Task: inverse folding
């Protein structure tokens, strides 16, 4: 029987370490064995889960990957959900994806139990699967659906991005080739595992290559710096906010600590930044401190990684580089023509085997985002001396904060549930640490005062922490154009 390539590769990696924490290590063989046991439990009496959607609410690390592999090996589609989301955000992802099962671990089981009961979903606790049943698993065609990732965009509610096993493999192989991943690599994993950066670029590439992943439940500066000074890693991948936070921590450290930390960073073979624009000043400060030239790359949930500075070659501050292996990129000018010269801006459009299949259950949205077979990213760029420079986004309603993509419209809909908010407009304002800070202009009713602290307090539990506005301006009316539509550029001007 032919197995999916990642399983065949894991067999070859055998007794190598796949996951290492301060408490324990797990090999590739254990990953295979354990995922087989969980797959058997998930299948119960069925032969094949036939692309049923199974939501994954599991802590990053060995447990997460065994559950992910188990769902794949049983023929299901993985829907990773955000560990720190609110109950209504979970409910949205579960109902929109039409998930039938939630796979959870540890304290996550209790956290989601009542929602599973309400939605009549099967809740599987991976911790309580002990049976060593051995049974045959279905043969999975690589063109079958494998994963749905929820991503915010120009619609109020997030959309599910569907990829197949073959698409995921193409995304991984492109990066493994470009950045020369090998079984000797060791990488920390501290990003959330419901987004492509952590799932594909870090964990996916590492497990494909037979490398070691060191998982952390969240980004904690001191733990990471402690391991860097012990030379624990060869590779490091993060969003720009994390590099800003690391610079702040290094600058605040004692002379002795700083020397040890910087020596650790200097020994890494590659450090990558992506998911949001890396300011050239951060690139330059990082190089000054550590001697490491950060490699900036550009990607998106729908396409995997598309453009990257070179591993062996120029890494130019402020630009994202050239197309990755097997990725085709073109720029489409505002007048509809394909840009053929340098220094002329256009929308980035992408084609290749790593591009997603469809938005889950949204044929119109899927058709709208393709043009002649090219995916329209909504990001503007210009080609300068062979490298692309990102110039911004076509939509003002997309905010990138801390590497998370947020929909201004979704946050506005949330704020409008506040009893005192009659109207509001949400924008992203430039912010040194977060890239953009979520900012709201609101028209309020009643005489009771409302300030940012009160608003933030009200938002807690109603939306994920990173969506909660950082700044608030109470206005008598929102600026509108002649058609009566709120003009976000005028809202932006209110804050200057
Ligand atoms: C959190 N806080 C924020 C915030 N997020 N404040 C402003 N803006 C934000 N975006 C606040 C919290 O409310 C809290 O405040 C304090 O900061 C600490 O919160 P935290 O959650 O502990 O923050 P921290 O752990 O420091 O998180 C920062 C981070 C995290 C950068 C580690 O945001 C993160 O993991 N981002 C990565 C997301 C990601 O993986 N994106 C990739 C998407 S895929 P208080 O007051 O309570 O102390 C993609 C495609 C591609 O983009 O190309 O890769
Ligand atoms: P997401 O939808 O969460 O996958 O985020 C994808 C978006 O992140 C892209 O459309 C870009 O707007 C942004 N992005 C990713 N990498 C970069 C980068 N290096 N520079 C600027 N923007 C980036």
Result:
């Amino acid at each position: 029987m032919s197995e999916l390539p990642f399983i065949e590769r894991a067999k070859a990696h055998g007794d190598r370490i796949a996951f290492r924490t301060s408490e324990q290590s797990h090999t590739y063989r254990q990953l295979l064995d354990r995922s087989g046991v969980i797959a058997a439990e998930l299948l119960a009496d069925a032969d094949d889960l036939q692309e049923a959607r199974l939501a994954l609410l599991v802590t990053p690390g060995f447990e997460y990957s065994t559950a992910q592999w188990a769902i794949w090996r049983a023929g299901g589609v993985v829907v990773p959900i955000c560990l720190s989301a609110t109950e209504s955000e979970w409910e949205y992802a579960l109902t929109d994806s039409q998930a039938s099962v939630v796979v959870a671990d540890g304290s996550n089981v209790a956290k989601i139990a009542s929602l599973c009961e309400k939605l009549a979903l099967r809740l599987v606790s991976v911790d309580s699967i002990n049976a060593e049943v051995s049974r045959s698993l279905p043969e999975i065609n690589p063109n079958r659906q494998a994963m749905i990732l929820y991503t915010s965009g120009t619609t109020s509610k997030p959309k599910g991005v569907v990829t197949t096993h073959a698409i995921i493999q193409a995304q991984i192989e492109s990066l493994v080739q470009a950045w020369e991943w090998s079984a000797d690599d060791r990488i920390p994993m501290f990003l959330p595992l419901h987004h492509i950066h952590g799932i594909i670029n870090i964990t996916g590439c590492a497990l494909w290559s037979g490398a070691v992943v060191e998982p952390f439940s969240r980004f904690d500066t001191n733990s990471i710096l402690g391991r860097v000074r012990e030379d624990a890693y060869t590779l490091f991948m993060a969003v720009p906010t994390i590099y800003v936070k690391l610079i702040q921590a290094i600058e605040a450290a004692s002379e002795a600590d700083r020397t040890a930390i910087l020596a650790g960073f200097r020994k890494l073979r590659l450090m990558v930044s992506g998911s949001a624009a890396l300011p050239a000043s951060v690139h330059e400060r990082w190089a000054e401190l550590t001697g490491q030239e950060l490699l900036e790359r550009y990607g998106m949930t729908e396409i995997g990684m598309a453009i990257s500075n070179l591993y062996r070659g120029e890494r130019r501050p402020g630009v994202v580089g050239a197309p990755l292996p097997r990725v085709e990129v073109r720029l489409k000018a505002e007048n509809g023509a394909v840009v053929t010269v340098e220094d002329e801006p256009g929308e980035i459009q992408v084609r290749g085997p790593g591009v997603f299949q469809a938005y889950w259950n949204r044929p119109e949205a899927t058709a709208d985002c393709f043009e002649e077979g090219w995916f329209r990213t909504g990001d503007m760029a210009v080609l300068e001396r062979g490298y692309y420079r990102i110039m911004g986004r076509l939509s003002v309603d997309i905010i990138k904060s801390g590497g998370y993509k947020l929909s201004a419209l979704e946050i506005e809909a949330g704020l409008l549930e506040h009893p005192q908010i009659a109207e509001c407009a949400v924008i992203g304002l430039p912010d040194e640490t977060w890239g953009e800070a979520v900012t709201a202009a609101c028209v309020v009713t009643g005489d009771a005062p409302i300030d940012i602290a009160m608003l933030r307090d009200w938002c807690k539990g109603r939306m994920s922490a990173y969506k909660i506005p950082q700044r608030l301006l109470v206005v008598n009316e929102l600026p509108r154009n002649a058609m009566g539509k709120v003009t976000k550029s005028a809202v932006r001007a209110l804050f200057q």
Remarks:
- The pocket of adenosine monophosphate (ligand 2) is lined by residues 151, 196, 274-277, 296, 298-301, 320, 377, 379, 390, 393, 400, 405 (CB under 6 Å).
- The first strand starts at residue 17 and ends at 20.
- The radius of gyration is 23 Å.
